[in-house]
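User: Before I run my own analysis I want an independent prediction to cross-check against. Here's the chain; please return only the structure tokens and, at the end, one sentence I can use as a sanity check.
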Amino acid sequence: MPEVLHKGYRVYVYLALGRLFSALDLNADQPDLQEHLDEAIRSPGAGVSKEDIMHLIRSNSTMTQKVLNALADEGLATVAVGPRGYDIRITPKGVAHFLRYRHLYNEIYQKELKLHFRYVGLPGWLTHAAARSPES
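Assistant: Structure tokens:
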């Protein structure tokens, strides 16, 4: 019987943070990242919807809301509800957190990430971070 691995919501928080960073359309390793960061965060296309996050983590609305609350409570993202739904955006603190800890999270959650994306493949932001990991 295959091993059942239950993912805690912290894995989902990392996935959501990575998705929010990828919405900025920036490369985490580009040398002039800080110069483009403020403009990218304010750009109209920098936000994602709750449905985008729900689809990414492949979970129900309750878990998605828990992830969004954790991101907002920690100041890593802003969650605004408008007439057309949710607009979720990464904050400068969220970008700094993602850039600082992405290699660590990739190492810690390696097994969970591989299982989570086993049928669809790793997203671009995750494969790039994993390829650049100091331990790789």
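Sanity check: The beta strands are 77-82, 85-90.
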